[in-house]
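Example 9 (inverse folding). The structure is encoded as follows.
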């Protein structure tokens, strides 16, 4: 039986998602331990996408295979009872044969949050990126539209990125201001290593007036990471949701309800 989980976590105290040798604290290790305890046998957790050290998740989607039979209520309570306080399973569901948390996904949605004020935050210090220079969110949004579509994103990938191809389909990038925060919502079929944080770094430089609006398009065309801007910090980044074909009937994070225009773009999977 294949079980699917929606998982949220605060990545501040983790060395990323992926299990690592040496006993380093990772989200995968925590979830595997908890699920194995409830299943009463070792399970392997497969995720939609690995997140780096310090990156958070509003909804990471994972699956595991098990021979154990438990009610949804028992799985949910049992796994959460064995998880640390900074990780929680928010929903659980059995799925159709052939589902894969990574390969069945048709859209990933990330959110990057920038606190844009004179002083750092004591309460959000590990959950937002701080920028004291005023950011022009409209200029950032305008610049980002040059990245929407199918392109070679070499200029926005980490130099050590192991992906075979730099080609990605960017569905949308929305940048907007909410009081003291500038928020970037971004979705693509998949992302390269550090791609979202590199895009955020470029847009921050544009929003602060350091670079012109045309810089994002120029970087994209150059296909040269060395010409790109700095990689924005990890703690402002959230894996915010994953979209799967409707046939799997998986729950969708409430973030899609808050962004109806976004949800509409995913209504017909043939259009993606």
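The amino acid assigned to each position is listed next.
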């Amino acid at each position: 039986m294949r079980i699917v989980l929606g998982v949220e976590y605060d990545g501040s105290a983790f060395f990323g998602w992926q299990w690592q040798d040496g006993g380093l604290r990772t989200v995968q290790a925590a979830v595997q331990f908890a699920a194995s305890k409830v299943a009463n046998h070792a399970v392997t957790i497969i995720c939609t996408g690995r997140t780096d050290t310090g990156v958070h998740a509003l909804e990471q989607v994972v699956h595991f295979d098990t021979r154990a039979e438990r009610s949804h209520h028992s799985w949910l309570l049992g796994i959460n009872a064995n998880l640390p306080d900074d990780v929680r399973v928010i929903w659980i569901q059995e799925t159709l044969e052939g589902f894969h948390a990574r390969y069945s996904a048709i859209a990933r949605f990330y959110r990057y949050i920038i606190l844009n004020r004179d002083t750092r935050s004591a309460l959000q210090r590990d959950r937002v990126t701080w920028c004291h220079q005023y950011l022009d969110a409209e200029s950032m949004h305008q610049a980002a539209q040059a990245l929407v579509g199918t392109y070679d994103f070499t200029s926005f990938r980490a130099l050590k990125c192991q992906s075979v191809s730099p080609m990605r389909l960017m569905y949308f990038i929305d940048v907007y201001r909410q009081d003291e925060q500038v928020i970037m919502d971004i979705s693509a079929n998949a992302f390269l290593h550090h791609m979202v944080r590199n895009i955020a770094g470029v847009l921050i430089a544009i929003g602060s007036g350091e670079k012109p609006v045309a810089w994002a398009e120029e970087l994209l065309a150059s296909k040269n990471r060395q010409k790109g801007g700095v990689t924005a910090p990890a703690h402002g980044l959230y894996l915010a949701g994953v979209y799967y074909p409707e046939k799997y009937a998986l729950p969708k994070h409430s973030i899609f309800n808050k962004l109806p225009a976004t949800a509409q773009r995913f209504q017909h999977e043939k259009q993606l």
